[in-house]
Structures are given as C-alpha cells and as structure tokens.
Specification:
- The chain is mostly helical and 395 residues long.
- The protein folds into four domains: 1-27; 32-111, no CATH class; 125-199 and 278-394, Orthogonal Bundle (MetI-like fold), CATH 1.10.3720.10; 202-274, no CATH class.
- The chain is 62% helix and 9% strand.
- The chain is built from 17 helices and seven strands.
- The chain has helices spanning 2-29, 34-38, 45-55, 61-72, 125-160, 165-179, 182-196, 205-220, 226-230, 234-237, 244-262, 301-327, 330-337, 342-351, 355-372, 374-380, 385-394, and strands spanning 75-79, 96-103, 106-111, 200-204, 270-274, 285-288, 292-295.
- The strands form three sheets. The chain has a three-stranded antiparallel beta sheet.
- A hairpin with a 3-residue loop joins strand 6 and strand 7 (292-295).
- The chain is extended and about 90 Å long.
Length: 395
Amino acid sequence: MLRYLANRLFNGLLVLFGVVSLVFLIFNLKPGDPARMLADQRSSPEALAAIRLDLGLDLPLGTRYLLYLNDLSPLALMQRADRTRPAYLDPERYSVAAALPLGGDKLLVLKAPYLRFSYQSRRGVAQILAEAFPNTAILAVLSMLLAVVLGLAMGTWAAIKQGTWIDSALLGISALGMSGPSFFVAVLVAWLGGYVWFERIPLPILPALALLLWVVLRFAFPKPSAPQVKRLPLLLRLFPARTSVKRLPLLLIALYLLGLLLHWPWATASLSLPGTGLPMSGNLLDVDPFTGPFLNWKHAILPVFVLGIRPLAVIVQLTRSSLLDVLSQDHIRTARAKGLSERQVVLRHGLRNALMPVLTAVSGWFASLLAGAVFVEYVFGWKGMGLDVLTALER
C-alpha cells in the first residue's frame, strides 16, 4: 500500500513538474515585455532596466527557470546578503517557516510556495487565487451536486422503464447534454433565462395543449384496442384504431404551424407564465446600498445549470447501464423471489451495487469542473478562477 501511494505521489509530482515547465516556457518565450507592462511606453531606459533587474528578466532563460522552480518549491536555496543578486530572501515576498544556515550567506529555507505577482494588477498571484478559488469551488460543488442528484434519479428511472418512451426521452436528453459545447450552451441559457424569459415566459396554447393531450392519451390508451376505440369520443373514432392516439396532437401542431404561416391571431395566442427573474450575469456576493454585502444565491442558478449539464448526461448513462447490469444478476432474482417489493429491490440491492462506476466518474468530473469553468464564468461574469485566467490572457 505504501509503495502504491509513493508511486502515485511520484507520478503526480512528475505531471506537476511538466505542467510548471510548460507554463514557464509558454509565458517566457511569447512576445512582449513585462517591464513595459509594469511601467508604460514612455518610461526611461533606466526605469525599464531597474524593473528587469527586480524581476530577473536580465538573466539567461535557464537561470530564470531554476529561480522559478526555487520560488515554487517548499524547500528552497536562498541567500540574504545582497538584494540585487538572485534568490534573495525578501521577507515581504516569502513566508518562511524554518531556515537552516549552510555557510556564508546561503540558507536552506522551508517556506510557502511563492507564486510571484501579476504584471497587470501588481497583486500577488496567491492573493488573487485565494479570492477567486472559493467562487469557482462553490460553482463546481453545486454543479456536481445537481448532476449527481438528477443524474441518479434519471438514470434509475431510465433503467426501470427500459425500452419505453421514457427511456428514449431520457437518453435523448443525456445525448444533447453531452454534445452541446459549453460556450454555446452558456450563451444560449444566459440569453433565454436571463433576457427572453426574465419578465415572463410565453407558453403557446396549441403546442402546450397538444403535449398535454399526447401525455394523457399515451397513459390512457397505450395500445388502443377495438373495445377502447368504441369508448372514445366521436372525433377520435374517425381515425384508425392504432393511430388515433397519435394523430390528434399532430393535428394541433399542424394547425399551430399553419396559423403561424398565415398569421392567424388565434394561433399565436399564449399563456403568460411568471418569468425566471434571473440575471444574465452576476456574482454570488451582491451589495445592497442600505444593508451592505449579502449572498445572492439566485445568481448561481443559471451557471450551475450550464456547468452541470455535461456531467449530468454522463451520470445518467452510467447509472442506467450499471443498474441494468446489476438487475440482471442472480442475487436480484433471489431478492424478488423472497417477496421484496420492486422499490426495495431497485434501491437497496440494485442501485447501491451500481454506484461504483458512477462514483469513479464523479471524482474525475469534479476535478474537470474546477478547471473547465472558464467559459461559463466568462459568459455569466462569475468572479472565479476561470474569469481571472481569461482576463489575464486578454491583457
């Protein structure tokens, strides 16, 4: 067990080392002068040289890379004799826990990783991340909670109703959730939920009536037989027995489309439902001019919904396939033979044993949500790590 943990830790450190090295090379080989970003275009050459000396930009690339790793490492080699030399132990920058003298002015220091500071805002990167990470974490946790709760319920329902229209509808919804690009879905949801449906939701009467009639007839007459057709109203008897349930909703939809084409006033009539009242953008922390800052949880509804769509779709399909596999095993037949109700069989003996692949997927998706909230935070103006990353790249 210890060997396994050591191997996993070593592999994780290698991945972290590769990511750190790649990030350093990308941002140090790209065009641009950080000294001019900190100063301005009209600064004197002496001022620019002083800024480059302070940032270590006058050093070779290999030396800057080693100093970058030295700043990130909790165990670092520092010196405290000359402020102008590299690896100077500046107490304003480094938070030192312990220091071991190595002779002369050199020290072996145990410290917190130093992430340096932003060229645009002149603030410490650690401070920026500390302020942005809680908002991103809240967004990811709420999105994963939504995905897990709805995904387990929908996946279980699809497995129980295997082969029915409910199963097909739930699988179709999950397929749409997996295929929709995050940026497009975020823009669409923000526009619909935060602008079009903000004050009221118009519900066309004919399509709503057609959907309601289809659901009622579907449950009342799943497969109409001859005796059932005789009990139907006279209008429905005009249609064949096997298609009478389906054609009346289609007739209403056809009348609705024809009315839209010919601009009939009655075809465009709609019910006015209450709007969402959700803004297109906003942060979790809002400010009231009289009472001060407060948590406004409704701002999180739309971004949580968008960010949770993709893991929700994955959890639905994983739950369905895993539960169907478990329900076909021998111990499920034994439980049914003992007289347990179908609810006990599915929830206690089926779903509990089908959760392992779902839990594995949830752990991986949660890490990806923390890293993949960039587009969602940008569209909704959510002040998290993703918005800070895009803002830094744009500048």
